[in-house]
Fold these 2 entries.
Entry 1:
Amino acid sequence: MSWSEDGTTDLPRLPSPLHELPDERLERHGVHLQLKRDDLINPEIPGNKWRKLRYNLQTAQEQGCTRLLTFGGAYSNHIRATAAAGRRWGFDTVGVIRGEEHKPLNDSLAYAAECGMTLTYLDRTTYRRKTEPDVLAALARQFGPYYVLPEGGSNGLAVRGTAELVDEITTEFDVICCATGTGGTLAGIASGLSGPQRALSFAVLKGAQFLEEEVRRLQREAYGTATTNWTVDLGFHFGGYAKRNTVLDDFVIDFTERHGVTLDWVYEAKMMYGIFARTEAGDFPPGTRIIAVLS
Ligand SMILES: *Cc1c(COP(=O)(O)O)cnc(C)c1O
């Protein structure tokens, strides 16, 4: 794709680096951990958000679409990333936000608006029907023709983009872990694995049983077939999306002190807590080599 140069955002830099994470709490159990630092590839369009957008932007451009429309909650990282990508590569962007408008805008939405994104709001009942033709048609009447990115940016093209993360890893490993919201990242990572390698995801939403079917659906959309080499752990949501408690907060503070890495508490902290808890519980046989993705 030919990227227009407006100088506001540097191009995301791939491959993302892989860092050793020596930690006695893992070493005691013979577990070896490395971090895939997808969070470092770009400050405005971090890791998995860029991987999920990449082929969608290319397809939108090939179809001659100049406007991206997408969905999210008021704190959605995907909304932010889409706004930044739109500004960077010259698309108009419309963000359809769940619930009512609150002024002043929170930091995420203020940033999106500053990138030029048009924000519009759907009440929760209509938002639930956001993939239905009448809702999509009404949005087209209001904003003009658009290329639609689903909530969280997860679709078949996004899965193909995130699968490439695995190709970048040149060291051997047994398990790759990620935090899961909508499932696109997990679907791609699992599709990219080979042999006995497995993907283990930690759901950050409460009641995320829907992921079992959704991840399979996304893999089929991307490749026509689903894999069985992945598991979703539903036990570490800490009360639900963007919920936290002092146990999680203390874990994040301690982790920063030990390793100089501050975990994003909505996603990565829950995954990392889960990895350490499962290690402590003896879930990983000694010798297990884990890669944890920070997005
Ligand atoms: C969006 C996001 C995820 C979840 O990705 P899904 O593909 O929606 O499962 C994980 N970590 C971070 C930091 C994210 O922004």
Entry 2:
Amino acid sequence: MRYVSTRGEAPSRDFQSVLLAGLAEDGGLFLPESWPEFSAAEWRALRGLPYPELAARVMAPFAEGSLDPATLLGMTRRAYAGFGHLATAPLVQIEPQLFALELFHGPTLAFKDMAMQLLGHLFDHVLAERGERVTIVGATSGDTGSAAIEACRDRAAIDVVILHPEGRTSEVQRRQMTTVLSPNIHNLAVQGSFDDCQDLVKAMFNDAPFRQEMQLSAVNSINWARIAAQVPYYVYAALALGAPDRPVAVSVPTGNFGNVLAAWVARRMGLPIERLVIGANRNDILTRFLAANDMSVQGVAPSLSPSMDIQVSSNFERLLFELLDRDPVATADTMRRFRADGRMPVPDAAWKQATTLFHGHAVSDEATLEEIRRLHRDSMYLADPHTAIGTAAARAHRPETGIPVIVAATAHPAKFPDAVEKATGIRPPLPPRLADLFAREERFTVLPNALEAVEAAVRGHARRNSR
Ligand SMILES: *Cc1c(COP(=O)(O)O)cnc(C)c1O
């Protein structure tokens, strides 16, 4: 399988090289040159497999020619062995035709572990094979950073530098990052928003000499391998609910558009997902796009679901490329104008096509609390604020045909205990493996929102990388 850039100016690459590169040299995102498709019989053959086996089988076409299936299976087995639930991603019914796909049983209690734990193994394997090292640089609104840190801590060939917006992550989220004192882990608290952090990371990648010198690599959701690793759980849930012989719908609380894009990929591979619902908080650029073709940047406002406090959803570029019939010139031009004007000029036909499949719903903080309260009252289900946005959006766009809706339950309620307690009166305890989190020592560096300062810090931390 070869990968092409959405902007068409970068050479095609294989899976390993896309994994290490993250972003393409032309600023675009990698996508498979063609989509693998599974027949109904091939989907049925995956029913009942343990999660790691199913994951390896679903991902195999993406790694074809780059990783053999047995190696991939070994990695999915090790990646999911440390999860706190034998089903890896249990599917829990919360109402008639409404199911929570619990993606938060990994080490950091959020769905990003599903992909990141596997990425740690993928990086290790590929770097060892090549005798190379990398500096992983990432921006996080909370959960990506801790997931990357947990996946890469103490790995010899990897340095990790994570930027988070100072004071804008929950305390649990911050501590999950800053209490990992491994020598290869470095946390930078940037005086700015998540989008500022994301811009700094992009700027470092666009600084070619710096990128080369540091052997920069990304594990945020622009990395194709992460999207690929998020496809299997939609397959797992859909098969459990009767696919491919019965269609399903999916509802995803969305920030960077990575998780919902993975559901789109599953559909593109032939899984009968009839509808994709996007849940947002007050940072509603995607729902405004779906409602009125208004993809315009407004300031980021903090909410009860901080992992979705994002105004520019980086992975949307991949869908845009598909909506524009894979025209890289049109994609690059649209992205350039978005960057310049803060408004994305999506052609009407492409927008209409998007709205036939995607449905958006924005949920206020008050409505999020009400939803958490309701789920607890009516189904004894404790949901975190992100998951509650997913169930609220699912309810707003329930398919008339009565097909089952899978909600991506993206965080453990104990990760956002204040909101859950406010809504239900119950303060969900951290699982035993994290019970002493608030007593652990923290380490991080506060920096201004300035590229020079951040590059200097990365250079300092990545010293072990320069030869
Ligand atoms: C990252 C995250 C999201 C948003 O996922 P995207 O892939 O960025 O759309 C939603 N909920 C939680 C808990 C997250 O950590």
